[in-house]
Amino acid sequence: MPFENTWEDRGYYSRFWGIVPEWEIDVMNREFSDDPRCDTARYQIFDGTDIEAFAVTEREIKKIASNDIGVESYLKNISVALVGSKPEIKAAYQQYVETCQKVNKTWTFRIFDTLAEARQWLQA
User: Fold this and answer.
1) 59 burial class (0-12, 13-18, 19+ CB within 10 angstroms)?
2) What is the distance between the alpha carbons of residues 119 and 122, in angstroms, rounded to a whole number?
3) Collapsed DSSP state (helix, strand, coil) of residue 108
4) Which residue among 5, 60, 71, 89 sits deepest, i.e. has the most Cβ atoms within 10 Å of its Cβ?
């Protein structure tokens, strides 16, 4: 699987690379939400800096967002930093964010070109 997850002091860092299908994002999300540490997490970083392409349809992006909307029902006030500079990656992020924001009222989302920018935002 082309991803790795790391628990940090206040949150969760996921790094993806290569070609990323929907099921791998689903596995990452389950690893996060099934872990008791998610109850105290303040942020989640999705680092797509090294993603070559998403093998994900618009419908699958909506499914991912719908699953996260469900998690938001018990996990409040998370900051979600989405990292990647490629236009097609940022477009997929934007669709995900727009879908989540229709219902998700306690999570904050931002898209960044670099991991350093994301970490700076999370420190503020």
Assistant:
1) exposed
2) 5
3) strand
4) 89
What element of type H or E holds 45? strand 43-55
- Residue 97's domain spans which residues? 3-123
Is the pTM higher than 0.70? The answer reads yes
Tokens of 31: 């690893």
Structure confidence by residue, pLDDT tens digits, 13-63: 999 999 999 999 999 999 999 999 999 999 999 999 999 999 999 999 989
In this structure, what DSSP letter does residue 91 have?
H
Number of domains the chain contains: 1
Residues 71, 33 contacting (CB under 8 angstroms): yes
How far apart CA 31 and CA 27 sit, in angstroms, is: 6
CATH value at residue 52: 3.30.750.24
